[in-house]
Amino acid sequence: MSTTTDVASASATRRAFDEFWHYFSESREAVAGMVFMIFIILVAILAPVIAPHSPIETNTDFLRKPPAWQDGGSMQFLLGTDAVGRDILSRLIHGSRYSLLVGCIVIFLSLTFGILLGVTAGYFRGFYETAVMRVMDVILSVPSLLMALVLVAILGPGLENAMIAIAVTYTPHFVRLSRAQVISEAKRDYVMASRIAGAGRFRLMAITILPNCMSPLIVQSTLSFSTAILDAAALGFLGMGAQPPTPEWGTMLAEAREFITSAWWMVTFPGLAILITVLAINLMGDGLRDALDPKMKRS
Questions:
Q1: Residues 6+ apart with CB under 8 A from 64
Q2: Please, which residues have CB within 8 angstroms of residue 12's CB and are 6 or more apart in sequence?
């Protein structure tokens, strides 16, 4: 009997995956974004192996060396060097680690606290719901980057504090989304049946209702991942995020500001890294929305 149940469960999982992939793969842009993100993840994991040089080692003999294909360039530094002789390519490769780390930690923190507050507010309602949502409204009333700057100014500059500040600014989005989903799902027949069967509050919220609210939260997480990378880069550019000599893409842009006209590669390549990564995540997020949202599925 157990074997039959396991086989049926595996078959249902396979059908669900096949359906998801069918709708996701309809968008070539989403598939391309997913492929690029897999590539970036592999680059981040293998950074110490594939980076040709140390990301923080300086070399005064190669200051602001242009890319290898430009006059005066060297094959030793394919994308050139910065103002203190550090290899741009190696810093970009190691910088992918920091960008992915920022996205993962910000989404984990904001999603965790957002679900906790949103699900409980949507389930218990009343004064607790009003208090939680008014606090979220206050946070949303301030532009996210400005709020992050204020929090980092209070906590102190640094990548860790920047991640905490960005997570605080994103939490209201997950709170409002999860609350709305819980309010909608709580009226369903299967929830009423579970309550009549004697399910406790925790079981109703965490096991019965929450799994059916995850699709929009997953899509929101994917799209917020890209904006978290952008905000971290912005804070780094303003000197409030990762501090030198950390090879974070926003910090690299900040260090290259005064050399925009004399050393274009110092600004161009970190900017392209941010642009392409954020674009890939957004394309993948659009594909996830199409695959997970029943209203977006085409017959």
A1: 80, 81, 82, 83, 259, 262, 263, 266
A2: none
Q: How large is the C-alpha radius of gyration of the chain?
A: 23
How far is 138 from 151, CA to CA, in rounded Å? 14
pLDDT for 201:
78
Nearest CA-CA partner of 135 in 104, 105, 113: 113
Question: What is the extent of the structural domain holding 158?
Answer: 17-296
CA atoms within 13 A on the CB side of 221: 20
Residues in the chain: 299
pLDDT over 50 at 299, yes or no: no
Cβ-contact 231, 148 below 8 angstroms: yes
pLDDT tens per residue, range 224-272:
998 999 999 989 888 888 888 888 998 898 888 888 888 899 999 999 9
Q: Looking at residue 47, which CATH number applies to its domain?
A: 1.10.3720.10
Helix axes 264-292, 2-24, angle to 10 degrees: 130
- Of 63, 241, 74, 82, the C-alpha closest to 162 is 241
Is residue 9 assigned to a domain?
Answer: no
Return the number of other C-beta atoms located less than 10 Å from residue 243's C-beta: 14
Instruction: Give the pLDDT confidence of 121-168 residue by residue, as tens digits.
Output: 998 888 999 999 999 999 999 888 888 999 998 988 888 999 999 999
Strand partners, 74: 77
> Which three-class secondary structure state does DSSP give residue 69?
coil
Q: Report yes or no on 92 lying in a domain.
A: yes
Q: How far apart are CA 4 and CA 113, in angstroms?
A: 39
pTM: 0.85
Are the C-beta atoms of residues 235 and 146 closer than 8 Å to each other?
A: no
Q: Tokens representing 278? A: 């954020």
Domain total in the chain = 1
